[in-house]
Amino acid sequence: xxxxxxxxxxxxxxxxxxxxxxxxxxxxxxxxxxxxxxxxxxxxxxxxxxxxxxxxxxxxxxxxxxxxxxxxxxxxxxxxxxxxxxxxxxxxxxxxxxxxxxxxxxxxxxxxxxxxxxxxxxxxxxxxxxxxxxxxxxxxxxxxxxxxxxxxxxxxxxxxxxxxxxxxxxxxxxxxxxxxxxxxxxxxxxxxxxxxxxxxxxxxxxxxxxxxxxxxxxxxxxxxxx
Amino acid sequence: xxxxxxxxxxxxxxxxxxxxxxxxxxxxxxxxxxxxxxxxxxxxxxxxxxxxxxxxxxxxxxxxxxxxxxxxxxxxxxxxxxxxxxxxxxxxxxxxxxxxxxxxxxxxxxxxxxxxxxxxxxxxxxxxxxxxxxxxxxxxxxxxxxxxxxxxxxxxxxxxxxxxxxxxxxxxxxxxxxxxxxxxxxxxxxxxxxxxxxxxxxxxxxxxxxxxxxxxxxxxxxxxxx
Lengths: 226, 226
Prior knowledge:
Two copies of one chain form a homodimer.
Chain A: E1 2-7, H1 14-24, E2 30-36, E3 42-43, E4 49-50, E5 54-55, E6 64-67, H2 80-92, E7 95-98, H3 102-108, E8 116-117, E9 133-134, E10 139-142, E11 145-148, H4 153-165, H5 168-177, H6 196-225
Parallel strand pairs in A: 1-2, 1-6, 2-5, 6-7, 7-11, 8-9
Antiparallel strand pairs in A: 3-4, 10-11
Helix pairs in contact in A: 1-4, 4-5
């Protein structure tokens, strides 16, 4: 039996969570937990409410830890209870993983030091603050740490993780089941390919939020180094 | 203000719903409802519980109707209350849409007659029962009816729908935000490309469920023709 703990927290980007959930839930002899501090419904970034299946106290360990991202990560970067829980699971987990800006929480728990990793493109440069090496790849595996890029990268991440944790044949069968043969109608899914003015506008509009997040990241680093 | 109604029902495939939810929720001046008969948490196919935001009675009309799929579609194909509600929304909706086997529910409501459409590969042939023309495409637009293929096709579907309903620039900006620049680690996401023995094994294993579903589809067709 494989136990996978997906962290479910307020204001997460629900697709960061639900992409991997769909893939992991199709693995044989596997239990996927949605774990949070309490069992109350969790309100995600755009309002969708999802119910946890376990509290931190209910699930003291898991084979796989997976942290999704979203702006809800920010207050957790210096939240003692959550950091302690992430560190606790990481101590005995076979794989420590993240999607999108969930990587920042792994970093804030000191789990990315000396590791190659990736995250959403708006936060990519922040990984270095945690002593990680930011990689320009959609999925990065470094030892038992597997990180995915922004939001939809969670599907590529999860298929890669299933191939690593179980076997490639299972990952392919799940890919067939979820008909993951993507055909984006446009070619705008990354700053390298999107219209330059669109990327510039998004960077400008997002600058205050990036600055706010970077300050929290640096606060977390100071805590780790204290 | 645009109102989008996503049908949330027991045993749906949650990624069919949550992919489009993530995309639609990023549209300006748009409210995305998760609508079901009651407000109690809905248990999806692999256990994830999601809360509805409105009941059928709360939401008598919407600009866009979107029906996700999963085996939870089966009991709805001949469920008078759900069929009546889908027909009610479709009467005034600007767009009538589905992801995966949600198309079967549109068919059972008589909404696919004479329309080109698509659905999950395991159910593709069933569309013809409803008088639709099954198309081998990941997203099919026929007038105001937009249908997507299996599960993950919901993301391609939703970006296409946003470009149609709003404009292409918005769809591209959302694609950039959710970093949808897919890089599947394997090439097994459709029967045309997956290993032949894997496709054959999945077809064989799924045959009883396909037969059961086809019987329900034919019951729905008989009802429509009565």
